[in-house]
Amino acid sequence: MNARERVLTSLAHKEPDRVPFAMTELTPGFSEKFTAMTGSTNVHEYFEADMRHVDFLGMSDEELESKYRCYHSHDVERFNDWGTGFKRGSMYHFEHFIPSLTDARSIKDIESYPLPDYSNEKYWGHLRQQVEEYHQRGLAVGGRLEMTLFEVAWQIRGMDNFMMDMYLHPEWNELLLDRIMEIRIFMAEKLAESNIDILMLGDDIATQQDMLLSVEHWCRFFQPRLTKIIDAARRVKPGLHVSYHSDGNPSKVIPALIDAGVNVLNPVQPECMDPQWVKSVYGDRISLFGAIGTQSVLPFGTPNEVIDNVKERIATLRCGGGLLLAPTHVIEPEVPVENLIAFVKAVKEYGVY
């Protein structure tokens, strides 16, 4: 069984030859340690992970400067494709978010704000070939579209403003989210056309204790739009797996996510969600993607403790498939390289069905 078959079998809630695993990205600090120890600059290739990712290309720095500089002061160092500005923070992979539309005074300001236009093939023309090359190597492919709605919107408007607008100017949020949704629908369709295996959606909608916003507001503002994005992708590729990412504890909206069409939950952060509980309650309708803590065992455990943690996850979560093990977030500098090696070794040794 190759890697793609392994992932698709598990996500179909069947048991493959072994539990599949994926890797997350590396922070610069960890990447330096990893390359110094292994000689490799590609963690996915080095560990022979079962999954790779594809993504739209972004706009050039010149395009972004021309489009969004007028919304920011000159101390902003860079912009993303949505016009959010960034300034360097305390470490070289931490940055301050600078919202671009905090001074909106009417719905016309929301309507006229320039959002990215990805219609040009230069942003997505590479996708089909890239996916095909991965498939020829027997690898599963995820199409990245995280930070789908909520995070894009509040980073444009500002968190305080966006949250208050749910009560004071809900029509402003409706318009901004509708505009973002239409772009995401186009992007989801293009990713589905490229024959990806998993459409990777998501927003950080929760703290480690509870939701960042009420379930009622999430279901009003986000669930219907998420449903439209998923439906559009599955019209292009029926049966496409859809993953939803939220750090923290989004357990209150798992039923609503399933109703929207999500069938893979990521990252199932064990510091604030019990993966075994998620499996026992929702495991017949949703697969678990993640479950190896990057706040606990990976940075602070020993290699043997990492192995024991992986063995426990496999023992409690693998029955009937529906499991794709991975670290729950990017790998920070505090993580010993030996612990990441132990994670992969344990999956390959103890994940056999």
Describe it for me?
With 353 residues, this protein is of the alpha/beta class. Helix content is 45%, strand content 12%. It has 16 helices and ten strands. The strands form two sheets. The protein has a seven-stranded parallel beta sheet with strand order 1-5-6-7-8-9-10. A three-stranded antiparallel beta sheet has the order 2-3-4. Helix 12 links the parallel strand 7 and strand 8. It is globular.
Order of helices and strands: HHHEHEEEHHEHHHEHHEHEHEHHEH
Mean pLDDT over the full residue set: 97
Poorly predicted regions: none
The counted number of beta strands is 10
For the largest beta-sheet, the strand count, sense and barrel status come to:
7 strands, parallel
The general outline is globular
Gap from first CA to last CA: 12 Å
Percent range for helical residues?
40-55%
**How many helical stretches?**
16
As laid out across the biggest beta sheet, the strand order is 1-5-6-7-8-9-10
At a glance:
Helices cover 45% and strands 12% of the residues. With 353 residues, the chain is α/β, with parallel strands linked by helices.
Pick out its properties.
353 residues, alpha/beta, seven-stranded parallel sheet, three-stranded antiparallel sheet, 16 helices, 10 strands
Please outline the helices and strands.
Layout: H1 3-11, H2 28-38, H3 43-46, E1 51-54, H4 61-68, E2 78-79, E3 85-88, E4 95-98, H5 107-112, H6 127-136, E5 140-144, H7 150-157, H8 159-168, H9 170-193, E6 198-202, H10 215-221, H11 223-236, E7 241-245, H12 254-260, E8 264-266, H13 275-282, E9 287-292, H14 297-300, H15 303-317, E10 323-327, H16 337-350
Helix pairs in contact: 7-8, 8-9, 9-11, 11-12, 15-16
